[in-house]
UniProtKB/TrEMBL annotation:
<dbReference type="InterPro" id="IPR029787">
    <property type="entry name" value="Nucleotide_cyclase"/>
</dbReference>
<protein>
    <submittedName>
        <fullName>Diguanylate cyclase/phosphodiesterase</fullName>
    </submittedName>
</protein>
<dbReference type="InterPro" id="IPR001633">
    <property type="entry name" value="EAL_dom"/>
</dbReference>
<feature type="domain" description="GGDEF">
    <location>
        <begin position="400"/>
        <end position="538"/>
    </location>
</feature>
<dbReference type="InterPro" id="IPR035965">
    <property type="entry name" value="PAS-like_dom_sf"/>
</dbReference>
<dbReference type="InterPro" id="IPR043128">
    <property type="entry name" value="Rev_trsase/Diguanyl_cyclase"/>
</dbReference>
<feature type="domain" description="EAL">
    <location>
        <begin position="547"/>
        <end position="802"/>
    </location>
</feature>
<dbReference type="InterPro" id="IPR052155">
    <property type="entry name" value="Biofilm_reg_signaling"/>
</dbReference>
<dbReference type="Pfam" id="PF13426">
    <property type="entry name" value="PAS_9"/>
</dbReference>
<keyword id="KW-1133">Transmembrane helix</keyword>
<dbReference type="InterPro" id="IPR035919">
    <property type="entry name" value="EAL_sf"/>
</dbReference>
<dbReference type="Pfam" id="PF00563">
    <property type="entry name" value="EAL"/>
</dbReference>
<keyword id="KW-0472">Membrane</keyword>
<dbReference type="InterPro" id="IPR000014">
    <property type="entry name" value="PAS"/>
</dbReference>
<dbReference type="InterPro" id="IPR000160">
    <property type="entry name" value="GGDEF_dom"/>
</dbReference>
<dbReference type="Pfam" id="PF00990">
    <property type="entry name" value="GGDEF"/>
</dbReference>
<keyword id="KW-0812">Transmembrane</keyword>
Length: 812
């Protein structure tokens, strides 16, 4: 209906436009005709008036000349008989009216007024009369025109022309409208009605217009388009119906699937999830939309999930495992299958997630049954041997050492037989707990059956000796812990253990042989009386036992004041004592004096060297302060104190040294700290900064045993060093022409160029001293001059040396 109204309104506009155009064109045409008629009428009127005046002008001139009143009257009467002249007069040359005639002019109407306005002609005419050529033309013929009459005639004709033009235009417009309606509007109305019928019918009605013109082509094209659209619509409806059924089926399958399903975009945001996903994650299905799947994942962030999705190819299934987190914080393991799919030209990732909690629990139980002891929860024989093989392979490749401890409980069979298996099982579980608490985190503890336990200590040192020491320490802790009574069901039970130890790797030993060696060592302990440990290698046993005794003794040495400071003089070429090196001695209550070479390395490996080094430093400063009070000769320059690398790298070392200097009142110029090359090479920047801080207090630095380490000339230039000490290995048996002399010469020349003092250690013969002096070395230390002395003996020797030199000077 709206289309018909639109068509009718279009026809009305069309008719109105045609009518207006026709009227406008008719008005223009009629106006042009009226304008032409007006122009002709005006010209005709002027011509007529001119002819009349010319016609009567000569007669009027004679009448004036003859003063013929009758003729003048006749002329004026003739003039006013003309309908457009209402007044005529003849005036003689004296200005008198010879004749005059007047009639009543036509009454003025609005048409006459309109005509007068349009015409605007000269209605008063005075034509001069020539009487005598010599005279002036004072005589004249006067005529007044009836403009109302003239205007009425003209306007009447104009109105007639206008009316005829309008009527003609209306007739022509009507004819045009009929033709347009017949050949254009009516076919359009029919086509509109036909189009409206198409909306209500299943089939296409007959064409309302089939002539071979534009409208016919329009109707034919529209009919063809409608048929094609109907076919497409039918196909689309069929497709929609099939998709609806398919979508309903897919949705039913998705919602009734046993696995959680998520349809995600490649960026990880969830588009749709099924009922199972909502139940598993305790979330409403609608709440999933737009959220990232990473919010429910423990192992994947948003970025890692996007990276994973980019690696999935279309139609290729990718399987992952994850821990999902519900909205209530519950977690459970899942196995997810990810598939890339394309829907409506968009990429999606379909994820099928299955809860594998039951499977994981079963796998855990199977793993524990296969690799762990069901009673104690420790590893079983199978897992232990597997880890031992792995450790042995690693240690062989990296030249590291480990140990196996084979344990057997003493008197366990007696307890188990007398009190029952339940008590025995409780003791075994308690033993397992104590072993786990004692052993380091990287160790593996296993129960081989009965009362046999085995411990694997991997990566316990870079040498067999250090490994043996660590294993022995661990064994002692186990022995100490297991002698503590067990409280089981109101029974206080005592159960010690025997431990056999085997160190690996050995190129000729397998994992089974290593275990057999530890077992052999265990039976040796049983034979010797139990509640102890033994190494498979007797030499290693002795060495480990000795190291343990030394380490244990070092703990007591400081508390029992068993350490002493000894001093070895440092002299110049004139045998003057320039200083002394502080040497540590351990006065053992049973073994007597023990030299540093027997215990310093153990103290460094156990970390006790820091405490011992701080004691040495403080005692040396206090002894120097005591000597200063007693009086020191001017020739005595400094006291040399060895500093351990571990002690030097302590964070508070600089502050501690400065505090000791302030406490004892010793100037830094009298202190020399001896450090090793390896410490400088491994910690160059840190060592440099600390040395510069101590150098500000006047403390000097010496490189001990120069040339025996991985020497580098770089630190000699950049570090604030003062002294080089040539190691005794270059001094022993030194001769001027030997190869050692060439090396010593290079060292001395280097030191001279760097303005460093050189001291040779271990000088024991006059030949060595002479060779050194010949090479340019003038400072010495060694048995040739003095053995290490205690504080009292050194001070006496120092004073005696000064007195001897004074006596020589007096005698000279």
């Amino acid at each position: 209906m709206l289309r018909f109204k639109f068509i009718h309104r279009l026809a009305f506009k069309q008719a109105r436009s045609v009518l207006l155009i026709s009227l406008v064109l008719g008005m223009i045409s009629t106006g042009w005709q009226i304008y032409n008629d007006f122009d002709l009428e005006k010209h005709h009127l002027q011509l007529t008036v001119s002819q009349i005046t010319q016609l009567h002008k000569e007669s009027a001139a004679r009448a004036v000349y003859n003063l013929d009143d009758a003729q003048a009257e006749e002329i004026t009467s003739t003039l006013i008989s003309n309908p457009f002249i209402y007044h005529a007069a003849i005036i003689d040359d004296f200005g008198d009216k010879l004749a005059e005639r007047i009639r009543q002019p036509v009454a003025k109407t609005w048409l006459a007024s309109l005509g007068n306005h349009l015409f605007q002609i000269n209605s008063h005419i005075e034509e001069p009369l020539s009487i005598n050529p010599s005279d002036q033309d004072d005589a004249r013929l006067v005529i007044d025109l009836d403009t109302a009459h003239i205007a009425n005639n003209y306007v009447r004709r104009a109105m007639t022309s206008l009316s005829v033009g309008l009527i003609s235009s209306l007739i022509l417009a009507t004819i045009f409208l009929l033709l347009i309606y017949r050949y254009l509007s009516q076919p359009i109305l029919d086509i509109a009605h036909w189009v409206n019928q198409l909306r209500q019918s299943e089939s296409c009605p007959p064409l309302p217009y089939d002539k071979p013109d534009e409208l016919g082509e329009l109707a034919t094209g529209f009919a063809r388009l409608w048929e094609e659209r109907k076919d497409k619509t039918d196909q689309l409806n069929d497709t929609i119906e099939r998709l609806s059924k398919s979508e309903h089926l897919s949705r039913s399958l998705m919602d009734n699937a046993g696995d959680a399903m998520f349809l995600c975009l490649p960026d990880g945001s969830i588009v749709r999830a099924n009922h199972q996903a909502a139940d598993s994650l305790k979330c409403n299905e609608a709440a999933f939309t737009g959220r990232s799947l990473a919010e429910f994942s423990n192992n994947y962030s948003t970025e890692s999930l996007q990276i994973l999705f980019t690696t999935i190819e279309e139609k290729q299934v990718s399987t992952i495992e994850d821990i999902q987190i519900s909205t209530q914080g519950d977690t459970f393991p899942i196995e997810a299958r990810c598939i890339r799919m394309c829907l409506d030209d968009n990429d999606y990732i379909l994820i099928l997630a299955r809860d594998i909690s039951v499977r994981k629990e079963a796998e855990k139980q199977i793993y524990e049954l296969a690799f762990f002891d069901t009673l104690t929860g420790l590893a079983n024989r199978r897992l232990f041997i597997d880890r031992l093989k792995t450790a042995m392979k690693f240690h062989q490749d990296n030249q590291r050492y480990g140990a196996v401890l084979y344990l057997d409980l003493d008197r366990f069979k007696t307890i188990n037989d007398s009190l029952g298996h339940s008590i025995g099982d409780a003791i075994l579980c308690e033993v397992a707990k104590r072993l786990i608490q004692i052993l380091p985190e990287n160790a593996t503890c296993a129960r081989f059956g009965g009362d046999e336990f085995v411990a694997l200590l991997p990566d316990t040192g870079s040498s067999a000796e250090l490994c043996a020491e660590t294993a022995a320490n661990c064994a002692l802790q186990i022995l100490a812990e297991l002698v503590v009574p067990f409280e089981v069901d109101n029974h206080q039970l005592f159960c010690s253990t025997s431990i056999g130890i085997a160190v690996f790797p050995d190129k000729h030993n397998s994992a089974a042989e290593t275990l057999r060696h530890a077992d052999t060592a265990l039976y040796r302990v049983k034979t010797l009386g139990r509640n102890s440990f033994q190494f498979f290698d007797p030499e290693m046993q002795s060495s480990a036992q000795e190291r343990l005794e030394v380490e244990k003794g070092l703990h007591q040495a400081l508390n029992n004041h068993e350490f002493e400071l000894w001093f070895q003089p440092q002299v110049n070429s004139a045998d003057q004592i320039l200083g002394a090196e502080v040497l540590l001695r351990w006065r053992h209550p049973d073994k007597g004096i023990i030299l540093p070479g027997c215990f310093i390395h153990i103290a460094e490996e156990s970390g006790q060297i820091v405490e011992i080094g701080n004691w040495v430093l403080l005692q040396a400063l206090q002894q120097l302060a005591a000597w200063r009070e007693q009086g020191l000769p001017e020739s005595f320059k400094r006291l040399a104190i060895n500093i351990s690398p571990l002690q030097f790298m302590q964070v508070d070392f600089v502050d501690r040294v400065l505090e000791m200097l302030d406490q004892t009142g010793i100037p830094g110029l009298q202190i020399e700290l001896e450090i090793t090359e390896n410490m400088l090479l491994n910690n160059f920047e840190i060592a440099s900064n600390k040395m510069k801080l101590l150098k500000q207090r006047g403390i000097s630095f010496a490189i001990d045993d120069f040339g025996t380490g991985y020497s580098s000339l770089r630190y000699l230039h950049y570090l604030p060093l003062d002294i080089l000490k040539i190691d005794r290995s270059f001094v022993t048996g030194l001769r001027p022409s030997s190869e050692l002399a060439a090396i010593v010469e290079v060292i001395i020349a280097t030191a001279d160029r760097l303005n460093l003092t050189v001291i040779a250690e271990g000088v024991e013969t006059l030949n060595e001293r002479s060779a050194l002096m010949e090479l340019g070395c003038n400072c010495f230390q060694g048995y040739l001059f003095s053995k290490p002395l205690d504080a009292k003996q050194f001070y006496q020797k120092l004073c005696a040396s000064v007195e001897s030199q004074l006596s020589e000077l007096n005698n000279s």
